[in-house]
Design brief:
single chain; Beta-clip-like; 4-stranded mixed beta sheet; binds S-adenosylmethionine
Length: 526
Amino acid sequence: MGVTASQPVCAIEDVPGKGKGLVATEDILKGTRITSEVPIIALAHVASVEQLHDLINQQVGSLNQDQQREFLSLHNIYPYTNHTERYHGIIRTNALPIGPDLAACSVFSQACRVNHACDHNATNFWNENINRVKIHAIRNIQKGEEITISYLKSHRNRQARQEELLRNFKFTCACRLCSLPTDQSNSIDVKLDRIHEIDGIIERGGVPALVASARRMLDYVDEQVRLWHELSANEVVLTRARSFAERLVPLFLASLGEDSPEVIQYSKLARDPTGHEYFGMSMKWKTAVNEIPEGLGPKDFEDWFWKRETDTSHGQLIYLRDREICLGFKDLPNQLDLESDYFEYTDADVRRPLCHWFFLGEIQAINPIFRRQPQVRDVEGTTVALFLPRDHRRELAESEVKKGNTVAILYAECMFGEAGIRIQDPQMMKIFPLSLDRLQNLSQDTQNGFRICRKCGKKGSSMKRCGRCLTFWYCDKVCQTADWIEEGHKTECKVLRDPDWQAMLRFNWDRFHGQISFPLHIDEGS
Ligand SMILES: C[S@@+](CC[C@H](N)C(=O)[O-])C[C@H]1O[C@@H](n2cnc3c(N)ncnc32)[C@H](O)[C@@H]1O
């Protein structure tokens, strides 16, 4: 991996329908550096077209005769009426991005002969350290096969790719991917679009989202990696801390070479992940080396690694205490936000959620005049006014809107300028007849699965389970009756049997396949 070809492994040849191209003159192994060259022309960003033309004339004028001949032989898809326009056209057709942030561009005699394919077998990278563009094989390439790179800014569905290529390079791609029958192409497009969509979510969220919603972000990356694997495209694997870096080094080595800044940086991080610029911003997933599970099979290790939930009967219940899903009032999106990680606007200007979240508030006070505008206390102790929907006010039983009960609101948003939440749709709301604390404890107690007496905490030889909720165990009838009457299992039992409560605990809140509402109908797979 990451080897440099000791002699040229390719040559510039005519390629039918594409002009010239770079063709393998022998079998090339994945990871081989095919070319590495310095620019013949390099242009920085300038303020005006006049300045650009001056710069182009100056650079072309300073080329020696061989270089000028080489430059003028390059492909040009733009019409021209004078030599400056001709030079500019050649540069627009051929230039590759360079510079630390790829803001400048350069022309290369060999790299600019490489044609595009959406299922390309090589990648081009600018190495700032050695001032060269390099092309690496990302698959094994057979002798006689054309070497191709991607000209696309992002890898999207077939129509979007074709439009971008036609607009910028004036050709219609007929690569293997673009030539697939419609049904096959469509199923690939769905995955490519999802990958692109996740890119957007991660980019918009930036570092704040990575810190605040690390779990959800990891899930997004996990989903992307799985999709890439399904597409059998380039393996782009990001992992946790050291292991993340360890997994990246061979990938960068294969595609960028051992002297690339990426290989140097990630080899260093693999040795010492604390060197990362964001190290320490969140300690939520701090894992000591000795906490890494041993003896797991490859599938189980990947599940642990990516924090995938595998057991849906346990494991989901933590979400009532999970601040990424069960948001406090201060973390709720604002109903006037035009851009948010939580919402997007459809083409028809309809606001729709991008992920799942909910708000929980225990009813503290009820206004005697506006009875159905209760005040609640959220998971962080903030007092918030609720505005229940008009028709729902009549439907809600008085016993429901009662001090001490807890309101769950799906996709809650805070009102502009008010410590309040307006519930537009009654199906987004559910009231549980328990306090917030008890609900949260219930989710944990249900999860622990221990066969100990719910009342006295002892372990008996012949334990009996509550025949209604089938959740808690008792050492005998005395304990069971005491718990029912004194400790309030009567109400708790009702909640435990409520299909909405059961669904809330079973539901995988991290995976978003569309908006949900009460009553919750949760598929086993969701
Ligand atoms: C940077 S040049 C590549 C080398 C060029 N074929 C030559 O003859 O020098 C880019 C141009 O090559 C052509 N080209 C690149 N990839 C192509 C493809 N997959 N199919 C058809 N033409 C392609 C297009 O005209 C594009 O504007």
